[in-house]
Design brief:
heterodimer; A: alpha+beta; Alpha-Beta Plaits; two-stranded antiparallel ribbon; 2 helices; 4 strands; 12% helix; 24% strand; globular; B: alpha/beta; Rossmann fold; Pyruvate-ferredoxin Oxidoreductase, domain 3; 2 domains; seven-stranded mixed sheet; six-stranded mixed sheet; 17 helices; elongated; binds thiamine diphosphate; binds iron/sulfur cluster
């Protein structure tokens, strides 16, 4: 399985990755981060192909990390507990 | 396994004042960050981090130096291609990233970009075109579309009044020398991935010594366009792309373009750039006849000299004299003047570097030699001198003593010595003579030979030479132990 980790502190909630992911694996979460943005969260554990599109479209240097053939260690690795 | 992560060409943390230290200062959805990411990733993959010199422009990307763990220079508005040219001249192996916005490149900096392109400088230009002045709050740029509302065109750009939007890639394409010109767009995933490819190609061209690459990137400025980031990307596709067509105008480095050979032939290869060697410089300065058996001096320590005083004291010409002495001795020398608007009386200083190796920057922030021609310049620069440095004070004018105890100091009544010979303005010659003698930098005979070719008013040559003798006499009687 593949997954994407969104760093809640770095994500600015611009929604660009959400719109770009071909498999609809991302959504904007409900929690505000320290900058006041609602960061993206990963919801595509069953369908993410680790294609990297979300990584490339994201303007923040380190907001997105894409893992291939790996399971998220904790729930918050996918960004949900922001 | 991690498949995609923050490139290592970025700093781990971004130490900007009062800001979250892992995210950038860019607005949500700004295109600059995406372009930065591709550049950083390409630097990593091409393994050139240690060679990169990133030129930040004036504009929203002015802070790029907080992000790229590389050599950085922040250029004045529009001048990145001129700075790039300078860096290329002194660092043949540098990988130069000339990064500019549209106000910067297509507005205030049009002349620099055109001539750098025309010279076929071996650099890579990233032109981030967001059709507006982002940093200053959304004024019209030369690339703003007809009818586009901006802060300075509240009713829309009017071509009758403001001209038509300018296509910089098209202008580049009218110039023979560039080897690669492409316009890409961040409007869609496809465009983003194409941009990534173009960034890599542009850098690869430079590393391979191919010549000038120009990549224009249509990029969103959601904040000043007053759109959300996703909408801004759609707006690029619907509005910018029809005016600024997405196309590769020229790719002379790929096999399938035949006429492209012309461009390659016209571009300057860095080893063809006519670097003047030291011998040629020496003959240009007409000192070869005077110093025929040039033996290259080997300095024990590079000399970072600041000569400071007021205008008219010979601060700047003293610096020229010293630099020419260095050149005549076959070492590297730079001279950088700094003075106010006053012709006389204002504060003036010259920075001179003498070095065994090539000099990257002529700026002297921390001198190891300070020649203070008056009191205010001692006040201004005393603290900048490195520990163990040397301060030479013109004690005819600067009456106070040096406060530091970790530097060596000489007080010489230079203006009095010069005045006695009828030429107060030659106090600089007194101090230079004593500096060279005391520190054993080079033979004072070199200075004696340079004075006749450097002093512009020929009737003062002999007086200057006599003043040199008096300075040496003073040194022998009062300083030498
Ligand atoms: C010599 C000079 N003139 C004007 C300015 C003001 N200024 C700062 S940024 C800017 C425009 C930048 O626009 P652009 O190059 O499109 O970059 P963006 O901010 O959109 O990325 C201007 C005019 C300046 N800093 N220096
Ligand atoms: S890696 Fe690809 S599939 Fe997975 S979340 Fe990102 S864009 Fe979607
Ligand atoms: S992860 Fe990046 S692209 Fe996605 S919402 Fe956050 S900042 Fe935007
Ligand atoms: S003003 Fe525009 S160009 Fe500048 S950071 Fe914000 S979105 Fe980017």
């Amino acid at each position: 399985m593949n997954y994407v980790k969104i760093s809640a502190d770095q994500c600015k909630g611009c929604r660009v990755c959400v719109q770009a992911c071909p498999n609809h694996c991302l959504k904007i979460g409900s929690v505000f981060n320290t900058m006041g943005y609602q960061s993206a969260v990963f919801i595509g554990e069953d369908r993410c192909t680790a294609c990297g599109i979300c990584f490339y479209v994201c303007p923040e240097p380190g907001a997105v990390t894409v893992f291939k053939n790996e399971k998220p260690q904790k729930k918050r690795d996918t960004g949900e507990s922001a | 396994m991690i498949k995609h992560k923050k490139p290592t060409a970025f700093y781990e943390t971004f130490e900007r004042k009062g800001h979250n230290d892992t995210s950038t200062h860019y607005c949500p959805g700004c295109g600059h960050g995406t372009v930065h990411k591709f550049i950083a990733e390409a630097i990593d993959d091409l393994g050139v981090k240690d060679q990169v010199v990133f030129l930040s422009p004036v504009g929203c990307s002015v802070f790029a130096y907080y992000y790229f763990d590389a050599g950085n220079i922040q250029c004045s508005h529009g001048r990145a291609p001129a700075v790039a040219t300078g860096v290329r001249r002194v660092h043949k192996d540098a990988v130069i990233i000339s990064y500019q916005g549209d106000g910067d490149l297509a507005g205030i900096g049009t002349s620099e970009i055109i001539h750098a392109a025309n010279r076929g400088e071996n650099i890579t230009v990233f032109f981030v075109n967001n059709a507006i002045y982002g940093m200053t709050g959304g004024q019209m740029a030369p690339t703003t579309l007809n009818g586009q509302k901006t802060l300075t065109t509240p009713l829309g750009r009017d071509p009758g009044r403001d001209g038509l939007p300018i296509g910089m890639a098209e202008i580049m394409n009218a110039i023979t020398a560039p080897v690669y010109i492409e316009r890409v767009s961040l409007s869609s995933t496809k465009g983003v991935l194409k941009t990534r490819k173009a960034v890599r190609k542009g850098l690869k061209n430079q590393i391979d010594g191919r010549g000038f690459s120009f990549i224009e990137i249509l990029s969103p400025c959601p904040v000043n366009w007053k759109m959300d980031p996703v909408e801004a990307r759609e707006w690029i596709a619907g509005n910018l792309e029809p005016v600024f067509p997405i196309t590769c105008f020229r790719d002379a480095c790929s096999q399938d373009q035949k006429d492209s050979q012309i461009a390659v032939e016209h571009s300057v290869e860095s080893d063809q750039i006519p670097f003047m060697d030291d011998k040629e410089l020496v003959s240009l300065l007409k000192v070869d006849a005077l110093i025929p058996n040039l033996e290259i001096l080997n300095l024990e320590e590079d000399q970072l000299v600041k000569i400071a005083g007021f205008g008219g004291q010979g601060v700047l010409s003293g610096g020229v004299l010293l630099a020419k002495c260095g050149i005549a001795e076959g070492i590297h020398a730079t001279w950088l003047p700094s003075y106010g608007p006053e012709m006389r009386g204002g504060r003036a200083y010259a920075s001179v570097i003498l070095a065994n190796d090539e000099i990257g920057s002529p700026v002297v922030d921390e001198p190891n030699v300070l020649i203070a021609m008056n009191g205010p310049s001692l006040d201004a620069f005393e603290d900048d001198v490195v520990p163990g440095g040397f301060i030479l004070v013109n004690s005819s004018i600067a009456t106070r003593k040096v406060k530091r105890d970790d530097v060596s100091v000489l007080y010489i009544p230079a203006s009095d010595i010069a005045k006695k010979e009828g030429l107060t303005a030659a106090a600089n010659v007194v101090l230079l003579t004593i500096y060279l003698k005391h520190k054993g930098i080079m033979s004072t005979e070199t200075l004696r030979k340079i004075i006749p070719v450097s002093v512009t008013r020929k009737k003062f040559i002999n007086t200057n030479l006599r003043i040199m003798d008096k300075a040496l006499e003073y040194y022998d009687n009062n300083v030498r132990i």
